[in-house]
Amino acid sequence: MTLKRKLSIIVLICFTLNMLLLFGYYELVLYDNIEETLNTIQIDLNNDVNYISSQIKRLQGIDNIKDWINNIDNIESINVTIEKEDNTLLYEHKTDKKSLLNVISTDLINIKENVYMIKAEKPLQISKIRKIPFIKEIVVAEVIIGVLIYYFILIIIYYKIVKPIMYLQKDIENYKFGINPSRANSCDEIGWLKNNFVELTEKLDEEKKNQNRIIASISHDIKTPLTSIMGYSEMIKNKNMPQERKNRYMEIIYSKSQNIKELIDEFDIYLGSNLESSIKKKPISVKELSKIIDEEYRDELTQLGIQFDIKSNCDEFILNIDMSKMRRVFGNIIGNSMKNMKKDYKKIEINFKENQENILISIEDNGCGVDDDKIEKIFEALYTSDKSRNVAGLGLSICKSIVKGHGGKIYAKNNSYGGLTIMIVLKRNN
C-alpha cells in the first residue's frame, strides 16, 4: 500500500473516530443538559408572550403598548411582532442583535372579534452561547478528542514512516562499513526505496567482485608471458650464446609481447564496448557483410584445415551496425570455435536468415559444445567452462556488450553436430 493511500486512510479513520467520539459524548452526556438549557430559555420566552397577551386582553387593544412592553425583563434582547389575522402588522419591536440560532414563541388572542397573533423571538448570540455550560463542555471534549487523535496520528506516522526511514538511514550508514542491508517486507514507497537500495548494493558488490576477477585475470594472463620474457631476456645476456639461439629467443620474446598487447587490447575493448555512445552505426547490406567476413577468415581457416561456409537467404536486407565492433564479435566467436575443435574434421558455418523485422545470424561449429547447465554463463565476464584455467578471457562478454549496444540479442545453444551455435538477433533497417 502506498504512503499516499495510507495517509488518506489515516485521515479518514481519524475524522470518523472524532465524529463517533463527539457524537457518543453528546448522546451520553450533553443531550440532557442541552435539552434542559433550551427548555429554560423557551419557558422564559413563553412567559414573556403570555405577559404580552394578558396585557392586550386587559387593555382590550394595543394602545400604549410601548409603555408597558418595556417593563418586560431583557426586552432589548427579544424581537416582538403583533399582527392581525389578515397579516397586517400592528406593532414591531426589533433588537439590533442577530444570530443564526433563534428560540420562538407565539400566541393567538381574540379581542372585539379581532384575532391577534403575538410572536416573540429570542436570538442566541455567539457570545451568549459560549456562556452556556454544555457549549463549554463540547469545546473541552473536542479539545481532548483532538489531542488524543493527534497523538494517535503521531504514533502511526512514527512507526509507519519515520521509523522505516531511520532504519533505511542506518542501513546506508552501515553499508559504508561493509554491513549489507536486508530487504523490506512493506510494499509502500519506503519499502520500495529500501529494496531498490538493497538491489543497488548487490549490484555494487557483484561489480566489485567482477573488478577483482578482472584484475586477477589480467594479472595472471600478463604474469605468465612476462615471466617467459624475463627468463629469455636473462639468457640473451649470456655473451657465449650462439647468435642463432639469441635470434630464436628474441622471436619468442616478441611473440610473448604480442600476447600481452592482445590481452590489454581485449581489456580496452571490454571497457569501451559497454558504452553505447561509442557505437557508430552505418547501413550495410547482408550481402556485403557476409563478403567482408568471408574475405577476412576463409584463407586462414582453410590453411588450418577448417571447412568454412557462409549461407544467406536475405542478401538484399540492410543492417545498421558499427562494422568495426561487429568484426570483433565475429572474430571472438570464430576464435572460440577454433580453440574448441578437437576432431579431425572441423567445420564452421555462418547463416543469415530473415525473420519478420530481424536478421538472425547463426555461427555454428562441430567442436565440443558446452554443458546445458553452463550454457547461459558463457557470456559472463571471465567465466570459462575450461576447468584447466583458473581465470578466463573477456571475448564473449565483449560480444554481448556490443550486440546489446546495437539493440540486439545474443545467446548460445548446442547443435546437432555436437558443437556450439551462437545466435545473434539484429533489427533490420528495411
Automatic annotation (TrEMBL):
InterPro entries: HATPase_C_sf, HATPase_dom, His_kinase_dom, HisK_dim/P_dom, HisK_dim/P_sf, HssS/ArlS-like, Sig_transdc_His_kin-like_C
SMART domains: HATPase_c (SM00387), HisKA (SM00388)
Sorted UniProt keywords: ATP-binding, Cell membrane, Kinase, Membrane, Nucleotide-binding, Phosphoprotein, Transferase, Transmembrane, Transmembrane helix, Two-component regulatory system
GO cellular component, one term: plasma membrane
One family name in Pfam for this protein: HisKA
GO MF entries: ATP binding; phosphorelay sensor kinase activity
Domain Histidine kinase: 217-430
EC class: transferase
Location within or outside the cell: Cell membrane
Record membrane topology: Multi-pass membrane protein
Annotated EC: 2.7.13.3
TM annotation in the entry: 7-26, 138-159
Catalytic activity: ATP + protein L-histidine = ADP + protein N-phospho-L-histidine
Lineage: superkingdom: Bacteria
Record flagged with keyword Ion transport: no
Main location: membrane
Protein name, entry field: histidine kinase
Source organism of the structure: Romboutsia ilealis
